[in-house]
Automatic annotation (TrEMBL):
<feature type="transmembrane region" description="Helical">
    <location>
        <begin position="148"/>
        <end position="170"/>
    </location>
</feature>
<feature type="transmembrane region" description="Helical">
    <location>
        <begin position="6"/>
        <end position="23"/>
    </location>
</feature>
<keyword id="KW-0472">Membrane</keyword>
<dbReference type="InterPro" id="IPR011642">
    <property type="entry name" value="Gate_dom"/>
</dbReference>
<dbReference type="InterPro" id="IPR014226">
    <property type="entry name" value="Spore_IM_YlbJ"/>
</dbReference>
<dbReference type="Pfam" id="PF07670">
    <property type="entry name" value="Gate"/>
</dbReference>
<feature type="transmembrane region" description="Helical">
    <location>
        <begin position="208"/>
        <end position="230"/>
    </location>
</feature>
<feature type="domain" description="Nucleoside transporter/FeoB GTPase Gate">
    <location>
        <begin position="43"/>
        <end position="140"/>
    </location>
</feature>
<feature type="transmembrane region" description="Helical">
    <location>
        <begin position="293"/>
        <end position="313"/>
    </location>
</feature>
<feature type="transmembrane region" description="Helical">
    <location>
        <begin position="121"/>
        <end position="142"/>
    </location>
</feature>
<keyword id="KW-1133">Transmembrane helix</keyword>
<protein>
    <submittedName>
        <fullName>Sporulation integral membrane protein YlbJ</fullName>
    </submittedName>
</protein>
<feature type="transmembrane region" description="Helical">
    <location>
        <begin position="376"/>
        <end position="395"/>
    </location>
</feature>
<feature type="transmembrane region" description="Helical">
    <location>
        <begin position="43"/>
        <end position="67"/>
    </location>
</feature>
<feature type="transmembrane region" description="Helical">
    <location>
        <begin position="325"/>
        <end position="343"/>
    </location>
</feature>
<keyword id="KW-0812">Transmembrane</keyword>
Length: 406
């Protein structure tokens, strides 16, 4: 039997088994599906939509090209990617997964970056946003906003380490830049590129805005489908006790690292779905340091749910998924090590310090904005999601349905 036929049979058996398991466990599947839907329409959709729309408009108007020219002297020698990578990195950190992959794919389609550079860039622009780290994980699960500083520092420093590592990926592949760049490109050159890109854009502003809304909501609908699917898949694995089996295998590795075995099931859960995994980590009786190391790994790895979203986005381009997957493992390892190294100075020492003596740290340790913004998102998120989908249906119908019938 050829490898291709074996792969076909394996996929068919897996999908068929999953379908049968869902049919046999309708109540649990419905609960898991509802939970995934709740995460998507309360948090993911309303938090990502503004960034997706804004990024589409910034690319269309040439602002990204402008930023790329200015950041070229920084991004090229450090990460071996064009200057537009700085914009993708910043937007990825601000908006969270899978914004980095979406923007990388977008500028690859615009041919502003080569294939190898895109694979380098997407590897270190995938991250959780600060709202999720502070609001959901630190405050929501661990009930300690001070842990957000530690987790965020480890998360973003780990991504930086991934970028520095992945700069060696691809060897001496041809660069997307055809000419020599000045070490310090003048503002005039950046403005020239901005104007040139805007002139090339033939769409009127109204159509650009409509396209940005339609494209962004289509992507978010796809993301929602993956979140719901993996929420159900994770529940089914737990029901048929495969999670316990995987946990027994993982527990041996955790024991070698002197991490309690109680975290094996939360780790396996987090490998599939990041939110539920971190919630399970917070509920164990393990030491706080062990919890933080596993939580940091889960945040960095992103979960197979996020990785499936990224794979779907990258499939529209020639960017390979394998480098991204390996980078997520590296990110998890780096972040866990950084938590181990920074736990004492960024958490233990600050907790034992006199708040009156360190007023600056007292402000940092209690980021009320995270909790307030998170609660507001949970409250108004569904309304934003429903309103946006109604607008999407109107725009899509007006553009692709009504124009055909008239």
């Amino acid at each position: 039997m050829s490898l291709s036929k074996f792969k076909t049979i394996l996929i068919a058996v897996f999908i068929g088994g999953l379908t049968i398991a869902i049919i046999m466990n309708p109540k649990e599947s419905l609960e898991a599906s509802s939970r995934g839907l709740s995460i998507w329409w309360e948090v993911v959709f309303p938090s990502l939509l503004p960034f997706f729309i804004a990024s589409e408009l910034l690319i269309g108007f040439g602002v990204v090209k402008f930023i790329g020219v200015l950041l070229e002297p920084l991004m090229r020698p450090i990460f071996r990617v064009p200057g537009v990578g700085g914009f993708v990195w910043a937007m990825g950190m601000a908006s969270g997964n899978p914004a980095g992959a979406k923007l990388t794919a977008r500028i690859r389609q615009e041919k502003q970056i080569s294939k190898i550079e895109a694979e380098r860039l997407v590897s270190f622009t995938s991250s959780s946003n600060p709202l999720f780290i502070f609001g959901a994980v630190a405050v929501g699960f661990f009930h300690d906003a001070s842990l957000g500083i530690l987790l965020a520092a480890a998360h973003y420093l780990g991504n930086l380490c991934v970028g520095l590592t992945m700069r060696f990926y691809g060897g001496r592949e041809a660069s997307s830049q055809r000419g020599k760049r000045k070490i310090f490109p003048p503002l005039k050159e950046a403005l020239r590129e901005l104007h040139k890109t805007r002139i090339k854009e033939s769409r009127p502003i109204g159509k650009m805005l409509g396209d940005a809304v339609i494209t962004s909501i289509q992507t978010l609908l796809m993301i929602g489908g993956f979140i719901i699917l993996f929420s159900v898949f994770n529940k089914i694995l737990s029901i048929i006790h495969l999670t316990d089996l995987f946990a027994q295998i993982i527990s041996g590795g955790l024991a070698l690292l002197q991490i309690t075995k109680d975290l094996s099931i939360p780790l396996i859960t987090g490998i599939f779905e990041i939110t539920l995994g971190n919630q399970f980590v917070s509920e164990t009786s393990a030491s706080l340091l062990d919890k933080m190391m596993i939580a940091s790994f889960i945040l960095a790895f992103g979960g197979l749910s996020v990785q499936a979203q990224v794979a779907s986005i990258l499939a529209e381009t020639d960017i390979r998924f394998q480098p991204f997957f390996l980078a997520r493992i590296l990110h998890g390892i780096y972040s866990s090590i950084i938590v181990f190294l920074l736990f004492k100075p960024l958490y233990t020492d600050l907790q034992s310090s006199n708040q009156a003596v360190l007023p600056v740290f007292s402000i940092i340790q209690t980021p009320d904005w995270a909790e307030k913004y998170w609660n507001a998102l949970l409250h108004f998120g569904p309304l934003i999601t429903i309103s946006s989908i109604v607008i999407y249906i109107y725009l899509y119908g007006k553009r692709y349905v009504f124009t055909r019938t008239t």
